[in-house]
Amino acid sequence: SLYVSEYFSQSAQKLSFYSWYGNAKLFHFRVPEDTVLLRWLLQASRGKGPECTDMEITVHFRYGAPPVINPLGTRFPANATVRPSYNISIALSSAVQNTTFVNVTTPAAGDWFIAAHLPEAAGRIEVKGFSTPCPYMFQADMFVLRLAEMPILEPGVLTPQTIISPAKPLHVKLFVPKHAAGMRLELRNCLMGQQKVCTVRVALGSITLPQSFQRIITCVGSTNCSLALDSPPWEKWLQVMVESLGTANASMSVEMLASFTACRPRSASSFLNFSSLNQSQTGARPGSAGALGSSALSGGEAWRNTSSPRSSCLQSQPVVREDLDVVSVRYRLLNGPSVPVNSFSPTVLLLSLDTGMDSGGSLVVSLLLNKTSVNLANATVAACVSAASPVLSLNTTRNCSTAFFQGYPLSVSMASAEAMLIVLYPQTDDWFLSLQLICPGGQGECNAAEAKVTVFAYLTPCFNDCGPYGQCSLLRRHGYLYAGCSCKAGWGGWSCTDDTKAQSIGVQNLATLLLTLSNLMFLPAIAVAVYRYYLVEASVYTYTMFFSTFYHACDQPGIAVMCIMDYDTLQYCDFLGSVVSIWVTILCMSRVKKVLKYVLFILGTLLIAMSLQLDRRGVWNMMGPCLFALVVMMAAWVYHGVKRKRCYPSSWKRWVFYLLPGITLAFIAISVYAFMETNENYYYTHSIWHVLVASSVAFLLPPRDKHKKPWAWSQKLTCRYQICQNDREELYAVT
User: Fold this and answer.
1) Tally of structural domains, the chain
2) Distance (Å, rounded) from C-alpha 245 to C-alpha 217?
3) Is 357 among the domain residues?
4) Does residue 725 sit within a domain?
5) Disulfide bonds, which pairs (predicted)?
6) Please, are residues 368 and 480 in contact by the beta-carbon 8 Å criterion?
7) Which helix (H) or strand (E) holds 35?
8) Does 517 share its domain with 571?
9) Could you tell me how far CA 355 lies from the centroid of its own chain?
10) What are the respective helix, strand and coil percentages of the chain, to the nearest 5?
């Protein structure tokens, strides 16, 4: 056999501490057909700075869809199916780089996903630029070894094969046709030299993660060996690997035979509707040619024109897939939302999720039993959702499993008429919904009974749109799109349904009131500025107070939210007002000439607006104007001091009662803002920041100019008669 090796690589990604699914870095690979060995090369590294500490990276693997992970141990929504992901840990301790290999033999062909992340986030809010986080990088590369020409095992044909040595196992493949209810693989006439002893290990199927349903049997001391499977995956290639367990360098010959048990649908045209839905909707003319030589009938005709229910293994219902948006699909039944279900054979619906872009959402299946349609009060409608092939034996096994997939069970009855199933990140494949009526007394009790079940099935990016305390975000890795929920107000979980740490309504209202009403502390600063004739500064403080109040009213994570305009606009105006307030306050303290002061006001405001547009959260957007304004202020104070030949400001009372308290409040505010804020205490630490900054402004504003008189409201606004003096001088008079 000729082996071909291929290598696939993707660029490294910077890892993040985990707080929601968007923090996990996703890698998407596609394993080619006939692959016999898959090797992952995982490379993790960290920076060399003192801020870098020992770290443990968690890596998750899954076939067919992104892995469903739960590092925080939160609850999933009710009725959601959760199966633990396969994961490994990579430690970065003394070594700066760690290289790990993961091998998978006979992997399934198709999409494979890797997700990597750091431990749980600490929750501290870091100001960009104050500290340098340690970079942790992760890169995943894929190496595959595949057969260039894998032998094909034809059904019903006895094929001789040879196993050269135990070190070189035999690889063959066979194609499973549609409507295959079962398959059987036989090994006959095993010969090792002159001995008729079959000592082999047979592996049927491919390995998938996190769960693998590969079937393995070991045949020792027998000339014939067989393996039977129920509900094999339809229209798929199955790999068969045969390993010799004999002595080294001893060849073995064996004959292989594969056979299938056909499933006869209740009506050929009913399954034809799956591929000819347009004919089913418009109603093709009787006698028009269809696939397999059958007549293409409408959905209603196909249901009525059937053979005996006892002679078929399933009853099919035509389903239309309607694409609504990205990762958003609705399934519509052509014969109406209600489907008939009996006890003779399961009713099967096809839910197609094979486009490669459907695995990033949630598949929701909802059943509603029509209680008036069931003749038996103790009857139950058993349902099963499975991938690759339907479950055809609900009335006997009831374990909802196929040959290579463990399905998800559902049931409705007179006592519980509704049932719902949520499949998180369904793997790329054809999914099937099987329904069958089951009676406690056996099938004979249900002979005359028929149930009507209303089926609703759809694919949505986020179940229930993440609820009132979450935001559904569409994530992207190269060309692949998937969705995740970002929770707020203390809520957690996959769909933001875990209220273990949720904030109560009272706490949410308190947070909103603190963050908004704390901005009223700007009122004393505005009053001081107006009293001292600093009208431009007072206008800036009023602008800041207004937009900060309504920005925080709109920024709340809970239900106490009020947005008077677009959120991004409010945020930009809040940030702009905050930085400009600091800018004009320091320039006002410098006591430069009015013309120069107002020129600096306008020029600085324009530059600040530009820098905030480039990087809204950068620390230098605030520190840059502050430092420049401080340089201007210190230069002006030195100039005034040299000119007057004494310290400026010269009054000790000015220093003790105004400047030192204002500077102290400003430094405390900066410390709280930069080093103390976390996600849990944000609503009161940031409120303290509002109070301290506004109070410091009231202390730091300089006194008014000496030549300006205080506001004399009795003179400015007159409400009495006055004797006006006529100052005109008559230059001449004409008589």
Assistant:
1) 4
2) 12
3) yes
4) no
5) 462-472, 487-496
6) no
7) strand 35-46
8) yes
9) 19
10) 30, 35, 35
pLDDT > 60? residue 516: yes
Q: Is the model's pLDDT at 52 over the cut of 50?
A: yes
Q: Are residues 14 and 139 in the same domain?
A: yes
What is the C-alpha separation between 651 and 591, in angstroms, rounded? 15
Task: Please tell me whether residues 539 and 666 are part of one structural domain.
Answer: yes
CATH number at residue 88: 2.60.120.380
More reliable by pLDDT, 237 or 619? 237
- pLDDT tens digits, 111-143: 999 999 999 887 777 766 667 788 999 999 999
User: Residue 512 above 60 pLDDT?
Assistant: yes
Quote the DSSP letter at residue 118. Answer: E
Same domain, 73 and 137: yes
Give the CATH number for residue 404.
2.60.120
- 343 with 238, same domain: the answer is no
- Using alpha carbons, select from 518, 508, 507 the residue that is nearest to residue 561: 508
Report which residue type is found at 534.
Y
For residue 225, what are the domain limits?
157-262
- Per DSSP, 74 falls in state P
Residues 244 and 373 in one domain: no
Reported confidence tier of residue 251, pLDDT bands at 50, 70, 90: confident
User: What does the block give as tokens for 172?
Assistant: 């063959």
Of 249, 21, 248, the C-alpha closest to 117 is 21
| Neighbouring residues of 210: CB distance < 8 A, sequence distance ≥ 6 | 61, 62, 67, 83, 84, 85, 86
Task: Please give the pLDDT value at position 245.
Answer: 80
Peptide bond connecting 210 to the previous residue in cis, omega within 30 degrees of 0: yes
If DSSP codes are grouped into helix, strand and coil, which group holds residue 632?
A: helix
Residue 42 lies in a domain: yes
* pLDDT tens-digit series, residues 333-359: 988 788 888 888 889 999 999 888 899
| Distances 373 to 229, 306, 332, 454, 712 between C-alpha atoms, Å | 35, 21, 22, 11, 88
Q: Could you give the CA distance from residue 550 to residue 572 in angstroms, rounded to a whole number?
A: 12
8 and 127 part of one domain: yes
Of the three residues 147, 175, 195, the one that is the final residue of a domain is 147
H-assigned helices in 1-136: none
Element (H, E) at 17: strand 17-18
Closest CA to 208 of 87, 106, 63, 48: 63
With beta carbons less than 8 A apart as the criterion, state whether 170 and 253 touch: no
Write out the E strands in 501-598: none
Confidence of residue 65 (pLDDT cuts 50, 70, 90): very high
- Tell me how far apart the alpha carbons of residues 142 and 135 are, in angstroms, rounded to a whole number: 23
Cα separation of 673 and 670, whole Å? 5
Dist CA 325 CA 322 (whole Å): 9
Domain assignment of residue 562, yes or no: yes
The strand ranges marked E within 148-235 are: 159-163, 170-176, 180-191, 198-204, 215-222, 225-230
Q: Which of 123, 147, 171 is the last residue of a domain?
A: 147
Q: How confident is the model at residue 719 (pLDDT cuts 50, 70, 90)?
A: low
The more confidently predicted of residues 252 and 711 is: 252
300: pLDDT strictly greater than 80: no
Q: Are residues 579 and 456 in the same domain?
A: no
pLDDT number for residue 733: 43
